[in-house]
Amino acid sequence: MRVPVSWLREFAAVPATESGRDIAARLIRAGLEVETVDVVGGDVTGPVVVGRVQHIEELTEFKKPIRYCQVDVGPQHGGVRGIVCGASNFAAGDLVVVALPGAVLPGDFSIAARQTYGHTSDGMICSERELGLGDNYDGIMVLAPGSAEVGTDGTTVLGIGEEVLDIAVTPDRGYAWSVRGVAREAATAYRLEFADPGVAMDDLPAPDGNEQPSECGSDDLAGCGLFTLRTVVGFDPTAASPGWLRRRLTACGMRSVSLAVDVTNYVMLETGQPIHAYDAAKLRGVVRARNARAGETLTTLDHVDRTLDGHDLVIADDRGPIGLAGVMGGLDTEVDESTSTLAVEAAHFTAPVVAHMSRRHKLSSEASRRYERGVDRVLAPYASARTVALLLRYGGGRYVGMTAVEGPYEPTVVTMPADLPARVAGLPIDGAVVCEHLTAVGCSVEDAAPEETAAASRPDAVLRVTVPSWRPDLTDPADLVEEVIRLVGYDQLPSTLPVGRGSRGLTTDQRLRRRVGLAMAGAGYVEVVSYPFVGTADLDALQLPPDDPRRSVVTLANPLSDERPSLRTTLLPGLFEALRRNVSRGLDDVALVETGLVFAPAVHGGEPPRPDVSGRPDAAELDRLEAILPSQPRHLAVVLTGQRVRQGWWGPAVPAGWADAIQAAREVTAAVGAELSVARGERAPFHPGRCAALTVAGTVVGHAGELHPRVVQAAGLPADTAAMELDLDAVLVAARPIVPAPAVGTMPVGKEDVALVVNETIPTDDVLAALRDGAGSELESLRLFDVYTGDQVGAGKRSLAFRLRFRAADRTLSTAEISAARDAAVAVATERVGAVLRG
Known about the structure:
seven-stranded mixed β-sheet; 21 helices; 26% helix; 26% strand
C-alpha cells in the first residue's frame, strides 16, 4: 500500500516538522512494515513552472506534426518563450507545465535552448511520463483552468517532491490497506486525535425523490452481510478527473482511467472499502448477491470468459451474473464513455468467500486483496456516500437515492484480564495503560464487573473489550495483548534467555540415524534434501502399475503447486530431480542419498475432530486424531550414475551399477548391526532382471538395482542409472544399538579359495549362507571375489569364487582342520543349492 504523506496529513495532524522517514520510523515502531519512502518526481531538478499557451504555429513541412508554441511562463521567468512541441492535445489558452533551460528531468535528461525544426526551442512542454509522474505518454499535461497562476512553481502544483510511504501490509492488518487505516496508526503513534473520514456524509445531497434508485438484495447474508446501491443520473461521461485526484492515484501506483473509475479507486484507497460502479442503463431488474449456478459463465472486465460453480458468490441481475463478488466486475455492465446513469455498489463480503474465489479463478485484484484481509463491516454506506459526492462535484448529475440490505451484525466482544499484557510481556504494564492503548486502537473498554470501582487498577480486574468494526483480526485476548505491547514498544520488552530443561542426549534411533549418515558419507554419497511433493507425472515416470500402493497419495488441500499437489510415497522422484539438475550442470559422476519421511493415507479416515482449545484434548480425541493421520515411515534412498572409480594410474575406470546400489544397502545395515539378505526381486522402477529384494529379519525392507530403460527415458536420467530405496525405520527395528568392535585374533589365519558352479537362477546370498553354515565356528570371514560365465561352465551356469578365512581363538589350526572345514562348507552348498566344485 502506497500512502502519500500529504494525504495522510489530511486525516492525522502529524507535525509539519516530521518528514516521511520520521513518520515511517514511528509506524515501524508501532508494527507496520514500511519498506521504503519514495519521492514523487525525485529525479526532477531545476526550474519547472506553469505556463499558458498564447499562440500555436503549425509546422506542416515535416513528416510528423510539429508545433511552434508561444508560451507565457511569467515575467519572473522571461515572459513569453518559443517552444517546439510534437504533441497535439492542447490549444491556445491552456495551462501547461514547462521545463525551462537548466532543468534536469528523469533519466538525466537536461533541458537547454536548442535549434530544432528551424526554430529555437527555449524549454520543453512536459508530459506526465517525462516528469516521472506516471506512464501516460499520449500527450502533454494540461492543467485545469484556474488551477494555478502563470509562473507558479510547477513542482508544488504537481506534487513533485511528495514523499510516499510504501507499506507491506501483513495479512492481519487489512485496515492498513487504506490511507484511513495508516493515518489512524500515525495518529496513535503520535498520540493525536483522529477524525475518521469514513463516517462523514455531510457532502451528500438529499436524494431526488422523482426517480427510483436501482434495487439491490442479498440471497446469502453469510457471504454478503451488507449490500448497498446508490444511483446517480445525468452524470457527464466526458468530465475529466481533477488533476489532484489523478496525481494521488499515480502516487499510489494506479493509473487514471475515467472520472467514474478514478473516483471509485480514490475512495477505495482513502477508506479501504472497495467500490464498483455499474452502468445502470445496462442493468435488468434487481441487483443481488447470490451463489452462482452450475454452468453459468461470466466475462470479467479483463475480457476473460469464466465458468462459474456453486461455490462462487456473484453479483447478478435478472439476466445472470454481472460480477464476481469482491473480485472483479463483468464486462456487460462496464462503465464506458457514454455512461450517464451510474449504480454505485458498496458491500461487505466475508474474507474466506472472496479468498477462495480469487484463488479458484486465479484472479487477484485491488478489491480482492482488501476483502481477503478484512474490510470494515459497517463502512459501505459511508464510502459510497463519499463516492457519490465526488462524482456529483466533478461530473454533475442528480443523486436519486440508495437501496440496501443488511444481515444481523454484532460487534466482537473479548473478555481479558487487565494484567494479561503485563504477564505476557514480562514487564509492568498498568491497567490504566492497557485501557488507554486499547482505546487508542478504537476499542471500547469497560469493566466486566461494573459494581467495582477503579476496576482496571485491581490485580484481578477483568476487562470487557468491544472490538471496532475495522479490526476483524481482534478475536482473542492474545490479539489484544499484541496491540497493547506494540504500542508500549517492542523495544521495551526485557531480553530473557530461555532456560532449557536438562537433556538425556540423543535417543537410540537418533544415534543410529547419525551412524547411517556417517556411513553413507564415508561411502562417497552426497546427502540432498528435496521437496516432499509429487504429482501424477512423477509417479507415471516411475512406471508404477495402477494398483501399486505408492499411487495412493495424500493430497494437500492448498498445495504450493498444482503440478505436485500430493505428499510423496517414495523418495525417488526428488532424487531424480536432483540428479537431473546435477547432470545438467556438467557433473557426470553423481552419487546422491536422501533420508526423509514418506506418506501413506490412513486406513481409518473420516472427518477430523475439533477439540476445544480451552484445555488439553482427552485420550479418546487424541486417538481419533492419530488414527486419521497418514502413516509416515522414514525411508533412505540413493541414486548413482557415471563412474564409481575414475580412470587413473591405478587402472581403468569402473562404472557405477546395480551392484553399487546393493552395496549402499549393505553399508546402511552394517552401520547399525543388522543382517541384510539379498535376493532376486522385481519391482518398479527397476529393470526386471537387475533388481534385488532387500530383506532384514525376514521382512522385505526395500529394493535396489538398475532403473528400467523406460524409467530412465521418462525421467530424463543418464543410461544405466542405479538406485536403491529401503524403509529405514524397519531396518532400525532389527538394529543393534551397540555394535561390538571386531575381535582381533592372535592365532595364524588359514585361507582357502573355492569356486562353485551353480545355476544362474540361484541367488548368491543362498550360496553364501550355505557355505557359512557348513564351514563351522572357526570361519572368520567369507567373501565373494569373482563371478564367471562362459563356455567353461556351460549355458545357464555361472562360477562363483569365494575366499574363506579360518582362525581359532586358542590354537593354530592344522592344514587338515582347514581342509575339513572347507570340504564341509562345499558339501552343504552342494546339498542346498546344487553347487559343483569347479576344478
